[in-house]
Design brief:
Helices cover 17% and strands 39% of the residues. The longest helix is centred in the last third of the chain and has 14 residues.
Length: 155
Amino acid sequence: PCISIKDPSIVFCQGKWHLFCTIRSKVRTHQIEYLCFDDWSKVADARRCVLTFCDGYFCAPQVFYFAPQRKWYLVYQSSDPRRATEPYGPYFSTNDNIADPNGWSRPLRLVEHKPAAAKAAAAADDAADEPTGTADEPTADAEAVADTEAATPES
């Protein structure tokens, strides 16, 4: 059973509400679930369907219809353990019929490599976690080590 639900993406199409959301369960974390219903007062009774096109971590769905291709797009975060340096990223699947939870294509990576701006932001976040100082300006810890080394007699 589901222990939490978040990240809803909701569309109204052909007289029904279609809801995609991230769920967590005792068995597995970060899955996407689909619900379809015609009235919000009946949402608790809606059939719940965990999407099965991804075996691993996948969450944070956003669904939209792209008219030029006449396809529904589901964009989400997923992981691929074969990508050691960038295992998490944006993925998408397509479907001709939003009401068919088994009709979604296999996951396709939205971008092959992390954009330079995202890499720079991640590097800035990492730098904020590092001790203060630059390569040319030692940190307080580096100064203490240098003072200890200078005071240690050579053998």
